[in-house]
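Subject: for your reference before the review

Hello V.,

The reviewers asked for a structural picture of the protein, and I figured it would be easier to keep everything in one thread rather than splitting it across files. Below is the amino acid sequence we used in the manuscript, unchanged from the supplementary table.
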Amino acid sequence: WAPNFDESLTEPKVLPARIPNLLVNGSTGIAVGMATNIPPHNLGELVDALVAMIDNPAVTTDEIHEIVPGPDFPTAGFIHGRSGIREAYRNGRGIIQLRARAMVEKASRGDKESIIVTELPYQVNKARLIEKIAALVRGKKIEGISDLRDESDRDGMRIVMDLKRDAISKVVLNQLYAHTQMQTSFGIIMLAIVDKQPRILGIRDLLSEFLDFRREVVIRRTRYELMRAEERAHILEGLKTALENIDAVVQLIKKAKTPALAKEGLQKKFSLSEVQAQAILEMRLQRLTGLERDKILEELKELEKKIAGYKAILGSEKLVFKLIREELLEVKKAYGDERRTVIIPSEAEVSLEDLIAEEDMVITISHSGYIKRNAVSLYRSQHRGGKGIIAMENKAEDFSEQLFIASTHSYLLFFSSLGRLYWLKVHELPQAGRAAKGKAIVNLLPLQKEEFVSAVMPVREFEEKRFVVMATERGVVKKTALSAYSNVRAGGIIAINLDEGDTLIAARLIEKGREIFLATVEGKAIRFKENDIRAMGRVTRGVTGIKFGKGDRLVGMEVCDHSSAILTVTARGHGKRTEVEKYRLQKRAGLGTINIRITEKNGRVVGILQVAEEDEVMVITQAGKAIRMPVKGISKIGRATQGVKVINIAKGDRVVSVARLGEKD
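And here is what came back from the structure prediction:
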């Protein structure tokens, strides 16, 4: 410890470089377009975390979080809830709730109670808080407080609120938390300058950067100390030589006419450097005594040991971090103290999802990989044969390829063309205007080159008894338990093993006893029972669902509902509904039956849907136009027909997608 600037107090005499100062003392600052708000932390906990990282470089953020449970404010108080801390430590941003420490005391006489506040949230001014509480009591916004006073002294803070006889202390406390700074939020933004660039870092990255900094400091310091030690040893080597030849040295100096000639003579006769020769000339005669000679030899011996130690440190990364570890533990021993702020689980933590209304959203995906969500109500209902409205404004080379309906609270399982699975929440998708193109999926999902999303499945819960059935362009189908996809990693997982050149085109939820319907672009279809496909693990290929000729490919898959019909839409805007029962039940891997008669007038099949009488559908064209219409406006006819006009197609345009709306009139 050392005196402060006016010597009225003492302060730690520790170099700031020895501790992770950004985290220990916190940091607040605002620059152009950037802000940092790092809360203070407990020094001892941070040292323990740094030691853990030195001992095990592979330590995870969650393991560090166990060592450093959260910020530690000098004003103590409570951190209410842990979710904000977890978010901040993982991603560098998070919001935590701070609460004052308040307790209820019984009055010595009668049955009255008092609320005593002894600790406040970080950066809350006590005087302003008391003024605010008094104003709320006068304005009748907080009832039940009869008297308010400040009993703080040198021993600590104490705000006393006497309650009325009929007041319920818990109710008054909740009102104080809701209306005053007895409960505040602290927005954590752990932004720091790294390599001259501003970066938002999680706690592991911050500590890792500090260790890199300490490593550089220790190496530079050791190099400097080695240089100084070698310089001193060099001089002592010269003095040692002089002592060993003292008579000859004295005789040479006596005969020299000038100091310069004496120095030159010493260098030549005893092979000394200029620095060594100068040191001999400046040596006092008392150094020639036996005791002083021993001191020189002892100092040289000690320096040689230090030089060997410095070189060992510079030659070993392990020794560098061992030294850093020892110095950190020394700092903890000297200045570490107990945690002040208590972290308690929240009784009712509010997640982001709780603040988002549950509603159906139209999720649109373009061929170039842009995604967005919009409320279904943005698209007005039209009649069959209408011109449609713009669903997505696209460049000439892009077109709207996929459209899905899902609730904002649902999970979205993204099945990619390469057979991989990615996971997002619907409310995490960007919400843009009706004509906006949205955001590139590559910015939301870690897709590989030439990989695109081919099937999206909204799921609320990963139930054990439900299965996912998938179909590929070459007619391969696969059935896997839904629970196998519940723990999706950030980088995605394998959903199905694909043959070379094959593509995943559809994925559906299915239960036991249901039937599967497959359709091809050349107008063929097959219906078979789900138990024809045995349940398989996640990393498997699947089995043949339908066989077809050269040039044909699978265009869609549905799980059959006998009260519904199959809607088929073609590229030239034709469509029809056909009852499921019209397709005979077969075994899988058959050639199937005719679904729709393909001609030049109606074009190849672009999509199939299973629809009910009350459903509405959205049909999207390559030019980005969409028409929303009731299903009952599309004729219900037999299998081997061409269908009726569903949407008027402009010259050069074609239908690319059809989807059923979740909204009912």
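For the response letter, the relevant points are probably these. Residues 467 and 481 are 4 Å apart (CA to CA). Residues 348-352 have pLDDT under 50 and may be disordered.

Happy to draft the paragraph if you're swamped.

O.
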